[in-house]
Amino acid sequence: MSGPPVSLDLDRIGEDVPLLEGLRTARAIRRLRPDPVPAGLVRKVCAAGTFAPSGGNRQPWIFVAVTEPERRAFVAERYRRAFRAYIAPALEAAKDPAFPDAKRRNMNAALHLAEHLHEAPVHLFVAGRKRRGEPQLQALYPCVQNVLLACRAVGLGASLTTVHRAYGDEIDALLGLPPDCPSCALLPIGWPLGRYGRPPRRPVDECLFFERVPADALGRSRHPEA
Ligand SMILES: Cc1cc2nc3c(=O)[nH]c(=O)nc-3n(C[C@H](O)[C@H](O)[C@H](O)COP(=O)(O)O)c2cc1C
Fold it and tell me: Which domains does the chain have, with CATH numbers?
């Protein structure tokens, strides 16, 4: 799917995508159309998020969907600043012609998102109450992944980002989130410009072991640092 559907049945959209095929093709979609996304569809993907597991079934998630242009510009300006600092070493490394193509493509897509974030029609933040003074990321990321999968099912493009945390306090204040309920992720959501597809991944047989990991299996040459 590459554009907003002409008509949209909120009850039916996304309900027929096979689960495993959907998750195998739910890659980071960072090139988005500026066309608006109906609030009902944002609600539907967040509802999918609420079916995630959480410790003690505490369901700590709070979603904040930002659509107003001035608010998105505020977020995007800070995201861009943080992302440029984050990506600078990789940009330097990418001057080497031997820099791997897949990494280069991923970096360019992430750069595109940073430069165009203000155009993404929905900035969906996932936040959650701290517990014993600590953010409960482990309780929020399953929910985030459910939202990403639901976006895939209904034909929306989305990706998981966290760079905004460099300006987290300022952005959380804009969102009306109190200090004990910080945002952990920003999912820029919109209709995709490109297509879904299988992302490059290591074969499962390189990372699955039964009973015990053989002594030489996790050597640095087989699992170089990112
Ligand atoms: C914890 C976490 C934080 C991430 N933060 C960012 C981010 O700030 N910006 C960004 O463009 N992508 C971010 N990503 C997305 C990854 O770069 C992306 O999942 C990876 O490149 C694989 O993309 P693919 O599924 O299209 O292959 C993040 C992913 C994770 C799991």
Answer: 19-206 (3.40.109.10)
Q: Is 185 in the pocket of ligand 1 (CB under 6 A)?
A: no
Alpha carbon 117 to its chain centroid, in Å, reads 13
199 Cβ closer than 6 Å to some ligand 1 atom: yes
Pocket mutation for ligand 1, best pick of 108, 138, 159, 186 (most atoms within 8 Å of C-beta): 159
Q: How confident is the model at residue 226 (pLDDT cuts 50, 70, 90)?
A: very low
Check whether 47 has a pLDDT greater than 50: yes
Residue 21 one-letter amino acid: E
- 8, 38 Cβ separation under 8 angstroms: yes
Distance 5 CA to ligand 1 centre (A): 27
**3-state SS assignment for residue 11:** coil
**Residue 95, token pair as written in the block:** 């001057």
The more confident residue out of 176 and 222 is 176
Residue carrying structure tokens 């080497």: 96
pLDDT at residue 225 tops 70: no
Give the C-alpha separation, 226 to 215, whole Å. 22
CB-based contact 116:77 (threshold 8 Å): no
